[in-house]
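Example (one chain per record):
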Amino acid sequence: MAVSGGELSVRLGVETSPWIVSDEPWDRLEPLPPQRERRFRYPGRKALPDREVLCGILYVLYTGIQWEYLPKELGFGSGMTCWRRLRDWNEAGVWQRLHEVLLAELNAASRLDLSRCMVDSSHVRAPKRGSHTGSSPVDQGRQDRNTIRSPTGTALAVLLTGGNRNDVTQFLPLLDAIPPVRGRISRPRRRPDSLFVDRGYDHDIYRDQVGACGIVPAIARRGTRHGTGLGTYRWVIERSFAWLHGFRRLRIRWERRADIHEAFPKLACCLITHRHLSSLC
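Predicted structure:
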C-alpha cells in the first residue's frame, strides 16, 4: 500500500524534510516510470512502492550518504533497491520526460524566458574515476558538468564530460540537448533567442554555427578588457551551480557508472524547476 507524503512525515517525526515527496509533485511523476508486471506463478516478494523508493533516492541526493548506509528504519527500502530503481528510471528516460513536463508548465505560466540563455561548465572531483572522466593522469579525477540555463536559472539541458575535454566542444551538443518546450498553442521551441557566453567559448566557427541556428551569440572575446557587461546577466548561471552543489551528492562524483551519476544532476534540475513552479503559488 502506497504511503502519502503526509503519512511519511508523521512516521519520521518531521514536517519539512526535502526528501519527502508530497502529493503535488508525485501526481506529475507517477505515470512516468515503467510499470512492472508480476509473474502469475512464483511472483516473489512484492516490490516496494515507487513513491517510497523515490524518497530514498532523494534522501541520498540531499544528504550525500552512501547507498549501503541508507537507514532502513526510514521505510524507503534498502540502498540497493533505490540504486536499481534509479538505474531503471534513468534508462527509461523518466527524468527527461519529467523535465519536459515541468518546463511546459513553466512556459504555460509565462515564467520561462528564452530571450537569452547562458552556457557554462563546472568541475567536480571524481575520486573513483569511471567513465566520463579525464583520460590523462592530470584529469582522471575530474569531471565537467556543462549546462545551459534560462535567465531565472532554470536548467534546459545538462551534459557530463571528462575533465580533459574543452568546454567549447559541448557548445552545440548542449543546444541539441534542449528538449522541445511545449505549454502554449504554437510550435514547441528548442532554441533561445540569444546566448551569453564567456571567453572560454571564443571561437568564430562556433559563432557562425550558432548564428546559423537563428541564435544571436554574445560571446566575450579573448584579449579584451574585462567589463564587457556580460557579467550582469551571467551571474545567474553561477548561482545555478551553487543550487546544484546544494545537493550534497553532487559535490563529489562517487559513482563509477556514468549513467547513475548522470541521473542525479537530471533529478536535481527537475527539483529546481519544480521550486520555480512552486513559487508561482
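Caption: The chain has nine helices and five strands.
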